[in-house]
Predict the 3D structure of the following.
Amino acid sequence: MNFSYRHTKFISFDKFSAMLNIALFGPPGAGKGTQSQFLIDEYKLIYISTGDLLRKEIKAGSKLGAEAKSIIEQGGLVSDEIIVQIIEKTITDHPDANGFLFDGFPRTYIQSYILEGLMIQLHTKLNCLISIEVPEEKSVRRLLERGQSSGRSDDNDTVIRNRLREYREKTLPVLNFFKERGSYVPLDGTKSIPEVHNCIAQIVENELSKNLLNIVMFGYPGSGRGSQGLAVAKHFGLEFVATGKMLDEEVRKGTEIGKRIEQIYNSGGLVPDEIVVPLIEAKIVNSKGVKGFIFKGFPRTLVQSYILDGILKKHHFSISKIIDIEVDTLEIIRRLDKRSKTDKGMPYDSSTEKIVKRLEEHRKKTIPVIEKYKKGHQVTVIDGEADFDTVFERIKNAIVTGVKNLR
Ligand code: AMP
């Protein structure tokens, strides 16, 4: 089978890891077990099927298994006390999990609270409860079919009817709990296995895109925003979005846009937003499987900041962290002057007049953008007057702490 969906990996750095936690919900026979496998393989989730765990306990002949056995054979629900014990054990056995996939849990309203509590203990949350919706008669038919080969004593007509009654009376109210929290996502479970698979993949990708780590780097020219930005991108595995480089790349490739940019460069003008914005949007859309983006040199103006907010919103992303590297003006001039005398010197560093003009541009146009973001309490000011590694450590710590606080 060939399913098409984006492969997004997890943000996982230092001690922080954004987890992906999903519950598959639906009546017995909805296809929860069938759909679980690709989620486990693709997203490396720890699978927690309370049914499987209980069957294991029964097979092992444990006290807990003995308690559960007769209830399962009659199609009833095992007590919440037993369930909480087996779930908690599995979770604590996997301290480094990327995330958990719950199948057959929560099955009662009380178990919804248990799940919420367990997630809080892990400083995380359930991303979504995917409800695979199937009419009762279809469930019965599927379970009877499965009963011919599953070897499960509860896959027979009488027990199936009991299980579905329990589902209607005790399990369906779980949906209200997650509807209230905005994490209930229904899908049509009567579709084919690959179709349901694709729906689930889409839902998971949407969830993962909310987890992207998007950083904006600010700072005066010469503050180190470029070199630090690159180092941060490398450390966290982020896509480095530097508008200057992107424009140069178009010129180098000789594209239609590149030719227009070259003309503007030659006439000494500024490249207009109409050119920069589609390039940035294309970069975001075409960067598959990234953990996030780090923007440098954009937004440079208030207008561009509204544009960036809009583009991110359109693709269900948001800014996770804004860094502003502060360096004293005299030190900046000293650094840029020094740089102009090395092979790292840029054409725009070549005279004091040009340097001062760039600093002025930043003060007039970009400082108001930082002020705007500061009002939203999103900016961390970093003291950039130290050696490269020390400043890098400061930025790295600010990002890790900032993202932790977001959870
Ligand atoms: P399943 O494999 O999910 O169909 O579960 C088989 C049986 O295990 C159910 O009919 C219940 O008796 C029991 N069981 C599984 N998960 C739970 C749960 N979360 N709460 C109570 N009973 C459960």
